[in-house]
Amino acid sequence: MEVTAQPSSAKRDFIRYAEFNVPYEALETAMQADIDSYGSEHHINWIEPLAYLGAKYGGNFSSYKKKDLASILEKLKNGENMDDLAKDMKYYPYYYQVYSAVLGGFLGEYQVTVQDPEAPSKTVTETKYGLQVYSPIAKTFPFQHYDDFGASRSYGYQRNHLGHDLMAATGTPVIAVESGTVEVMGWNQYGGWRIGIRSFDKKRYYYYAHLRQNRPYQVDLTEGKVVNAGDVIGYVGRTGYSTTENVNNINTSHLHFGLELIFDESQKECDNEIWIDLYAITKLLQKHQSETFRVPETKEFYSISSGQAASSKVTASQNSESSASGSS
């Protein structure tokens, strides 16, 4: 991650450039330290040690060493204060702000709806602490991915790929990673049928594209609707690369998953939007997948994990097929 000086004449002071290159191993270790210390005298905020390393490495995590993270975690476990540890790091506040924008909604207490073991046709609610965001692909549905951020794309014009492609079968349920408000639904010649969801703190804009032809969206989804993390929002497809709506011009069915950081509303749609590499984050999100089931009569999927099924007045007892049986 590079730090660029802002002109003194800027009317508003906000971050205009950022990258997120924290490797999966560091994310997983810091997250586990946060979860394990929750409720203890010295609870570790996982973003702090990651921002410390960001400042130490100048954002270049090719220099990452496990012992560096272990050392700072040990100091925090022993009660040392990050304000003191990072007091001589000029850019620590910058990295903390950027990493908080990326990860700020990821950990916390959350309620999960599960089947009642004593009454399988009913559900119960449990409170947990940990990842409260979900993988964008539903539980039991396979997908493949690799680090493709920045790869070349040529449809329309030459550009870099500013998202992460998850290869999955057409009809695979797409999951809302984080709770938020649906800002965009509809056709885009590049992304095909797509959905844009804004986090409640307005800092993250999640983009899900190339959805299924003819029936791209979960039936209850509308613009302006509030969705819960874990809800089914749509279905994987291969639409896009066409000025005509509802056309399959993508060779391989997949979900284009993107995350834009927004520090000021002027950044939402501009020439200098901040999109981040999601490869490591997608690996982390696989630790928390939304369990779904399919209603045969409507061929719609609903999330059991988020409580979407209950709010939609459908129950798991209506499901006569395993959610792993394939696409609708």
UniProtKB/TrEMBL annotation:
Domain (M23ase beta-sheet core): residue spans on this chain: 160-259
Single GO MF descriptor: metalloendopeptidase activity
Any Pfam family hit: Peptidase_M23
Biased composition range(s): Polar residues: 304-316
InterPro entries: Cell_wall_metabolism_enzyme, Dup_hybrid_motif, M23ase_b-sheet_dom
Region span, Disordered: 304-328
Domain of life, source organism: Bacteria
Biased composition range(s): Low complexity: 317-328
Official protein name in the record: Peptidase M23 family
Lineage, highest ranks first: Bacteria, Bacillati, Bacillota, Clostridia, Eubacteriales
